[in-house]
Amino acid sequence: MNLTEKLLRIPASLPLGVLYPLATVGAGVLHHIVRYRRGIIRKNLRDCFPDKTEKELRHIEHDFYHRFADYTVETLKLMHVSDSEMRRRMQFENLDIIDRHLSAGRSVAVYFSHTFNWEWAPAISLHSAMKPSDKVKFAQIYRPLKSKKFDNIMLRLRGRFHSVSIPKAHTARTLLDWRKQGIVSVTGFMSDQHPGHGDGGTPAVLLGRPSMMISGTEALARKLGMAVVFWDMRRVARGHYIINVKEITPDASAEPEHSITQTYTRLLEENIRRDPSLWLWSHNRWKHPLTSEQIQTAYDHASI
Questions:
Q1: Rounded CA separation 171/197 (Å)
Q2: Spacing of C-alpha 103 from chain mean position
Q3: What is the pTM of this model?
Q4: Which of 59, 143, 251, 282 has the fewest CB atoms within 10 Å, counting from its CB?
Q5: If pLDDT is split at 50, 70 and 90, which confidence band does 268 have?
Q6: Domains of the chain: which residue ranges?
């Protein structure tokens, strides 16, 4: 444990009832003084919700900064939180869908997005009937941080409930190795959009905007014949979340190409529109414009 982590453990030991007022102050500082990515946030909201009034957009913007600040202290709290408290605060609906597939020997690919608080989602292992073991893995795909120090801290936080963090570059190899060893897994893929290098992407329409969605999740799930689900996140109160497990397909290999990604895009949009403040608007998700051919393909896919 490095010095930074030791220092972070001091505020992490405080109850959330103390941390949340600090988060409220922090939200105001980020929003009005630092103006953290405020230009990007406002542009994203304006472009995605053209029918909303300026007052409505400012309300979403205000709430977003508060959700972002809560996310920060909630993630920090993973350093010092009991299983019982986390089980109470992060709950799951329809988890039997995942348990049923694991019991039948089929691994599950989870489509998830940057909806607050995604860092608490690994608490699924506290609720599932299938517990982490040599033959059952709970995992998430991640991009290693440039700072080795903070990367190590985040890895420990994400492994708090015995889940495995798989570097994005090692995803296919790891899941293939697990299958050869007879290991079943639940693996979370943060697949909002904006494919990285090596992922050609799938054109789709998200929030009324032609977008390039990550295609690697579907390609790997199809190759491995995984069941595919979507995690629909909702915030029921401050520090209390519920993930509703929605099945997309029991066998990805049986689905037409692109159909899984299109279904995920629709489910993600429903999740965002229900409570826009929960999505991470500070990312420049539409940084790279689509070609006219990609735009047409996006609308063609949306009409299917």
A1: 14
A2: 25
A3: 0.94
A4: 143
A5: very high
A6: 90-302
